[in-house]
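Title: Comparing notes on inverse folding

I've been comparing how different people in this forum approach sequence design from structure. To keep things fair, I'm posting one structure and asking everyone to reply with a full sequence. Here's the target:
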């Protein structure tokens, strides 16, 4: 594992006065990866150390971003990548190995991408997972993507992909959104996808996101919603689709009220789509239970707890200049 993973991001932050606040977070991230006592860290580090070398390459425009030219020893590559199980966001083509992840994240991206112009943009992706969307954002012309995700195995997956992409501007910091200062307002586009329902204080999360967007920039918000045009909200007691930490699922009108309460415009609804068992499923690369086991086998319109089955909305919010 490289000892200076964030060198290029550090150089960028040092070169722009408006980004200098990032420097301590970069140091914190490097320290977290160097000194983490997570029990799986030795295995993950060994997996990264065993990755065969390859000629660097990035094609982020492909549904399965291409990271690196194919390596000769596919067996060794696959075994190393498998040690970073579970692969949730993708698909990815890493060193010639096709990683068929739990999610068809390319489907979500194809619903969003036609509405976005990321050319030369500085992007923040909160809850970025293994950085899948960051590769796609670079493919769509973004200048630099700063992703945040506190789940270390996803950061290790990003490092494996980065081993093959070479030094390009898609970074994943092992941090949660709470590590960000309140209101620096320096990113052109801020993404929060699949995170809002995990936050106890949804309006606080939206205010925090607002504080990261440059005046005149954009917020892309994707979250679970309830069907319908009336204002309502589900606050699951216990689990939702077997997830422990789902605090609230609003209807779109309620979500738009929260945006206004956070000081933002209500935004445009780009898409509302039910999650299907072909979009989220167990695969060779994610062998745990997936959506199928979370739905009522008698009535797949309901979760096993009896709540409405997952429906997701994408909103685009133009932040006034
Ligand atoms: C449902 S996944 C969504 C991943 C990706 N954004 C997507 O839309 O496919 C939620 C992600 O948020 C991350 N997460 C959890 N707590 C977080 C926090 N406090 N700040 C930022 N990300 C967080 C999780 O590790 C996980 O990768």
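Reply #1:
Here's my take.
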């Amino acid at each position: 594992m490289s000892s200076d993973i964030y060198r290029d991001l550090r150089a960028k932050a040092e070169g722009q006065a408006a980004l200098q606040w990032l420097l301590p977070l970069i140091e914190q991230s490097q320290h977290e990866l160097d000194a983490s006592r997570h029990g799986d860290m030795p295995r993950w580090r060994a997996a990264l150390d065993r990755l065969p070398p390859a000629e660097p390459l990035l094609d982020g425009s492909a549904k399965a971003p291409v990271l690196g030219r194919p390596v000769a020893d596919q067996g060794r590559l696959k075994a190393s990548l498998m040690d970073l199980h579970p692969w949730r966001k993708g698909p990815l083509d890493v060193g010639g190995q096709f990683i068929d992840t739990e999610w068809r994240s390319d489907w979500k991206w194809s619903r969003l991408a036609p509405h976005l112009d990321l050319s030369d943009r500085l992007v923040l992706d909160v809850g970025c997972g293994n950085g899948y969307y960051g590769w796609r954002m670079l493919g769509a012309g973004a200048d630099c993507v700063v992703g945040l995700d506190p789940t270390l195995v996803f950061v290790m997956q990003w490092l494996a992909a980065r081993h093959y992409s070479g030094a390009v501007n898609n970074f994943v910091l092992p941090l949660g959104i709470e590590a960000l200062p309140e209101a620096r307002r320096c990113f052109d586009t801020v993404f929060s996808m699949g995170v809002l329902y995990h936050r106890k204080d949804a309006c606080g999360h939206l205010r925090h996101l607002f504080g990261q967007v440059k005046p005149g920039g954009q917020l892309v918000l994707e979250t679970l919603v309830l069907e319908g045009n009336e204002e309502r909200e589900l606050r699951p007691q216990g689990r939702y689709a077997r997830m422990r930490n789902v605090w609230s699922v609003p209807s779109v009108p309620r979500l738009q009220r929260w945006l206004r309460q956070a000081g933002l415009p209500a935004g445009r609804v780009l898409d509302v789509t039910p999650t299907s068992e072909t979009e989220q499923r167990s695969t060779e690369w994610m062998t745990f239970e997936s959506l199928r086991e979370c739905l009522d086998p008698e009535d797949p319109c309901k979760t096993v707890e009896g709540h409405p089955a997952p429906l997701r909305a994408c909103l685009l919010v133009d932040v006034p200049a």
